[in-house]
Recover the amino acids of this structure.
């Protein structure tokens, strides 16, 4: 069972994007950072859970020579083994900041070339990040998708290699599973079925994907075999999170929490529904667990100028 | 964001505008023989609608509209509708025009939000066009224009993927972000709450292509289903029975985009004058920096250049239409409107004269290169006012 906690007010409402909530849990202290895209700006908030005091910062997308203001498409904290970067994406390019958003350390302009504005190449860019400083370099471009990338998920590989497995998802619903290394290798492709896959997560060799028709599917990452299919929502999924429970949020105003396990006999993936929450009259656009055990989560909704929080009782 | 959004935005808002004007004109309808010189008759109503529809669906105008391009600011788009509303003998003053625009935008925002599938926004557009054809069925030339636009819509949009429609939907929702004007007909029907938010139902048919939530299916490594369990999803959904038609004629199934106004359900708004939502809307508009103004002027010039406005000439008076119930209400609305909501109307003269169109384009061309407006005052204070506004 979950109950509503105090909401965190936002200076501007959340935009109708997918995966529109990023949460950074800091290991030291109880501080959490929240990031939400409003439109041409992204809001960063640090909320101390005890007294709820807030520190706000607003980041603007880097302007280009275009007609309308640049809109941010995603704000996300990338937690690397040795540093945390805040990444802001827009169709003009990728900006990377120190984790509190204070200094921009890197800007990568997306070159659309001769293509008319608005067509996306489906490229996945891989950057080499040094432990400190702005010496970030584009190391590789992965080809595997033909339409725009919607989400990327990573998981450190078990076995102490410190190299991650990666899943990328796109607008056609195609999923690509990669093995990282000095060069990335494509491990398997999981075809789509006519709807976009806006959100994807990776956990213990399981790919969890949320689709535009409200379905959540779980696949074995290495071979791409379908193991679970959930008719989870009545509208498109907008966000997934894994903590070890699976959290799904959709434009149908619902949030659901699912328990994942492996059957001891067959080793196959099993799913059980734990909890559902209806956020009345709100088209959700982002959802995240707020702590590693999954005992609390937060959601954002289109046109809503607050982050709603829930914690288990 | 999507560069194919503008035609859908324009046509649906235009459709709502026609519904509202049609209803108001019918409400103020006086039988032809009894009418005074300044009162509306059935003949006048048909003429106004014919004029507006034929301007909207003008071939050159549609050509400009369908070019892949980003959405322009709300101000620029509002200018186009101001011009469109005055494409005939009808005149609207500031307060009525504001109200008309508020109603149009909230109606389409509602339709976009409630579309079951992103692709259904195309069915909403077709509903508007079907109804527009009903309004002008006595005019075969204009009917033909509308059918041409129908075909163009089918050509451009019917082949788009679900992902592209999702992007179009997101682009539209970003355009409508933070608009929470309360509309009486929505409040009465309980589709909008008193805080201006729309009600999102969790019952009814699921979108075409979506399963009713509630089932978990588990498979083994061979792909065989080994377990099936149900869960309680919290809504009250049923399977969709039928998909709407995307052909020139057909049952659209979806009711969104059909005419919700009638003589018994008058057009009315309540504006939340002092609400903080209106301030945040103004803030969002002000973010647009000046360099955009030139691009928008170019867009407007091209779009207006394509509009053939029949300017009332001779002694014929412009008939005034009031969107409020009484003239006093209209005056009151104009006075009590909070300053930040004051969309200054950009007055542009009808550019039916080819030479004057070219003149406008030349002036704008100069403007683009030198970054300094060089106005010859004989071109009119209107253009100057336009520059000030943007």
């Amino acid at each position: 069972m979950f109950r509503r906690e105090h909401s965190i007010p936002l200076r501007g409402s959340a935009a109708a994007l997918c995966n529109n909530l990023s949460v950074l849990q800091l290991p030291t202290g109880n501080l959490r950072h929240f990031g939400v895209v409003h439109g041409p700006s992204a809001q960063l908030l640090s909320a101390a859970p005890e007294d709820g005091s807030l520190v706000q910062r607003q980041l603007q997308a880097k302007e280009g020579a275009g007609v309308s203001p640049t809109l941010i498409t995603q704000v996300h904290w990338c937690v690397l083994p040795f540093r945390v970067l805040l990444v802001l994406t827009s169709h003009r390019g990728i900006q990377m900041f120190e984790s509190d958003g204070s200094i921009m350390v890197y800007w990568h302009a997306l070159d659309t070339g001769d293509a008319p504005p608005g067509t996306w190449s489906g490229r996945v860019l891989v950057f080499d990040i040094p432990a400190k400083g702005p010496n970030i370099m584009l190391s590789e471009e992965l080809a595997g998708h033909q339409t725009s990338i919607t989400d990327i998920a990573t998981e450190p590989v078990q076995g102490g290699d410190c190299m991650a497995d990666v899943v990328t998802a796109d607008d056609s619903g195609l999923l690509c599973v990669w093995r990282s290394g000095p060069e990335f290798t494509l491990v398997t492709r999981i075809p789509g079925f006519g709807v976009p896959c806006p959100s994807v997560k990776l956990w213990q060799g399981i790919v969890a994907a949320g689709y535009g028709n409200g379905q959540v599917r779980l696949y074995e990452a290495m071979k791409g075999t379908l193991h679970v299919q959930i008719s989870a929502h009545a509208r498109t999924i907008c966000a997934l999170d894994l903590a070890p429970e699976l959290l799904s949020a959709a434009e149908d105003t619902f949030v659901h929490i699912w328990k994942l396990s492996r059957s001891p006999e067959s080793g196959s993936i099993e799913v059980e529904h734990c909890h559902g929450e209806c956020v009345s009259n709100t088209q959700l656009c982002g959802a995240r667990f707020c702590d590693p055990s999954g005992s609390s989560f937060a959601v954002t909704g289109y046109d809503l100028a607050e982050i709603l929080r829930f914690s288990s009782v | 964001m999507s560069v194919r959004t503008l035609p859908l935005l324009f046509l649906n808002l235009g459709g709502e505008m026609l519904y509202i004007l049609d209803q108001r004109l019918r409400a103020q309808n006086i039988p032809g023989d009894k009418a005074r010189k300044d009162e509306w008759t059935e003949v006048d109503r048909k003429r106004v609608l014919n004029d507006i529809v034929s301007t909207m669906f003008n071939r050159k105008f549609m050509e400009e509209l369908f070019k892949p391009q980003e959405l322009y600011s709300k101000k620029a788009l509002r200018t186009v509708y101001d011009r469109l509303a005055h494409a005939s003998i009808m005149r609207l003053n500031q307060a009525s025009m504001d109200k008309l625009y508020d109603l149009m935008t909230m109606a389409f925002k509602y339709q976009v939000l409630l579309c079951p599938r992103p692709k259904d926004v195309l069915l909403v557009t077709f509903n508007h066009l079907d109804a527009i054809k009903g309004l002008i069925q006595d005019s075969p030339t204009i009917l033909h224009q509308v059918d041409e636009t129908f075909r163009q819509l089918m050509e451009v949009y019917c082949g788009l993927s679900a992902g592209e429609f999702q992007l179009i939907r997101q682009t539209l929702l970003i355009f409508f972000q933070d608009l929470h004007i309360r509309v009486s007909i929505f409040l009465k029907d309980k589709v909008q709450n008193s805080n201006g938010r729309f009600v999102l139902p969790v019952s009814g048919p699921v979108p075409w292509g979506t399963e009713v939530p509630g089932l978990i299916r588990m498979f083994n490594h061979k792909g065989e289903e080994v377990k099936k369990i149900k869960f309680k999803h919290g809504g009250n959904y049923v399977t969709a029975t039928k998909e709407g038609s995307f052909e020139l004629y057909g049952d659209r199934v979806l009711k969104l985009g059909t005419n919700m106004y009638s003589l018994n359900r008058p057009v009315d708004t309540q504006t939340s004058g002092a609400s903080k939502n209106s301030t945040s809307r103004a803030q969002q508009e002000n973010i647009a920096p000046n360099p955009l103004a030139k691009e928008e002027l170019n867009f407007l010039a091209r779009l207006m250049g394509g509009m053939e406005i029949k300017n009332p000439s001779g002694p014929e008076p412009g008939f005034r239409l009031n969107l409020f119930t009484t003239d006093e209400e209209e005056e009151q609305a104009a006075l009590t409107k909070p300053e930040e909501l004051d969309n200054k109307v950009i007055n542009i003269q009808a550019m039916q004269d080819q030479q004057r169109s070219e003149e406008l384009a030349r002036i704008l061309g100069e403007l683009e290169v030198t970054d300094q407006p060089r106005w010859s005052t004989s071109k009119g204070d209107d253009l100057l006012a336009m520059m000030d506004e943007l």
In short: The first helix of chain B runs from residue 6 to 27.
